Every structure is written in C-alpha cells, then in structure tokens.
C-alpha cells in the first residue's frame, strides 16, 4: 500500500459511523481513501451503533489513549419485555416477559438508580479479552465465564421518550461503559427484562456529532477537503499530552 504519512497530513477526523459496519471497517476505508497506513480510532462503536467515531491520522495516533479516556454521550433505545444473549437486538432472545403498566415516573425512578459511580460486569458478547481470548469468541461457542466487574460512572441518565415497550434515553458516562449492559440491567430492575435496540454516540467530551462528516461523504472528498476537516492535534488535546 502506498503511504502518505507526512507531518503535513495528520490530525483528527470526526466521522459519523453508519450502521452495519465495525469501527475497524471505518479505519480501513479511511486508510484506502488517504492511501495511509497510520490511521486508528479512539473508542469502538458496535456494528449496530451509529454516530461519532474519532479517527486519528498520522502522528495523531499517539494521543489515542487520552481521547479514549474521555467521557461520552449517547442517545439510545431499549425494548422492555425481552432479554437477549448479547444484550442488544443482534442476539438471540433468551426470555420474554409481559411489560407491566409502567408510568413515566416509574421509568425515571429506575433510571435514576443507575446514576453515579458503580461497578458494571462486561457482557459475554464483547471484545474484552480474558487470557488473551475475546469474550465474544467464547460466547459464540455457548460458553459463559466469570467476568470481573469494572468501575464506571454514569454522569446523567434521563428518559427522552416512552412508547412502551420502547424507551428512548440519553446517557453521559465514563469510558468503558457498556450501554448494552446498562439497558439489560435497567430491564432487570424493572422486572421485565430489556435489550438495547438502537444506539447513537452524540459526543466525546467536546467533540460533537454536529461537527462530524458522514463516512460516505468523506469518501467523496478531495484531499484538500479532507485536510480542511482535520483537527490539529494541538487543538484537540492538552499540551501535557503531546
């Protein structure tokens, strides 16, 4: 592959990831477009999720750990009354329950109980590795192992709209938070089960989806237009990180 890794061609791209492809697929498409090898991302989105994906170009890849550590904001939708093995709509349904006559106050009260510092157990269908093996590979073989809970923080969790069995919500959270697990746990709290049906990342710290470019539009840009979209690293991270 030809390369174009020059000091003049580096920075941060804000891409609006479409549904149905992996974050790595987005990286590959940016690499092909720019004819560069040195491209990465700062925070994975599941294939079924859409929204803000921070793409790092050239030497900007060096600040990936800092950018991944930033808080994130999402809008999501969960369906009450059904649980799945993956905690989202991609998985197999494992149980169904009647959805009780919940009021908006009932939903809001349940959501409020998930605010603040807490420990969350990663789902089996995740890329988290145990002894070097991604959990999802074990899950696909029907295996379930004990997972160590990890510390997370939910800054804000609010209901946007309720149309049972669907609940649309907004969440601001720390890195490492699995929104699929959050939806599953809320369903358990309500006593009827739930799974995530839709997820869109709206922001990562001060990087906002409104400033992003759709992947398909990016692929039609000229190199000059791409360079105009690049955010210089020094504008994106504190000086002590560089």
UniProtKB/TrEMBL annotation:
<dbReference type="GO" id="GO:0003723">
    <property type="term" value="F:RNA binding"/>
</dbReference>
<dbReference type="GO" id="GO:0031119">
    <property type="term" value="P:tRNA pseudouridine synthesis"/>
</dbReference>
<feature type="domain" description="Pseudouridine synthase II N-terminal">
    <location>
        <begin position="31"/>
        <end position="179"/>
    </location>
</feature>
<comment type="similarity">
    <text>Belongs to the pseudouridine synthase TruB family. Type 1 subfamily.</text>
</comment>
<dbReference type="InterPro" id="IPR014780">
    <property type="entry name" value="tRNA_psdUridine_synth_TruB"/>
</dbReference>
<dbReference type="GO" id="GO:0160148">
    <property type="term" value="F:tRNA pseudouridine(55) synthase activity"/>
</dbReference>
<protein>
    <recommendedName>
        <fullName>tRNA pseudouridine synthase B</fullName>
        <ecNumber>5.4.99.25</ecNumber>
    </recommendedName>
</protein>
<feature type="active site" description="Nucleophile">
    <location>
        <position position="46"/>
    </location>
</feature>
<dbReference type="InterPro" id="IPR020103">
    <property type="entry name" value="PsdUridine_synth_cat_dom_sf"/>
</dbReference>
<dbReference type="InterPro" id="IPR032819">
    <property type="entry name" value="TruB_C"/>
</dbReference>
<feature type="domain" description="tRNA pseudouridylate synthase B C-terminal">
    <location>
        <begin position="180"/>
        <end position="237"/>
    </location>
</feature>
<dbReference type="Pfam" id="PF16198">
    <property type="entry name" value="TruB_C_2"/>
</dbReference>
<dbReference type="Pfam" id="PF01509">
    <property type="entry name" value="TruB_N"/>
</dbReference>
<comment type="function">
    <text>Responsible for synthesis of pseudouridine from uracil-55 in the psi GC loop of transfer RNAs.</text>
</comment>
<dbReference type="GO" id="GO:1990481">
    <property type="term" value="P:mRNA pseudouridine synthesis"/>
</dbReference>
<dbReference type="InterPro" id="IPR002501">
    <property type="entry name" value="PsdUridine_synth_N"/>
</dbReference>
<keyword id="KW-0819">tRNA processing</keyword>
<keyword id="KW-0413">Isomerase</keyword>
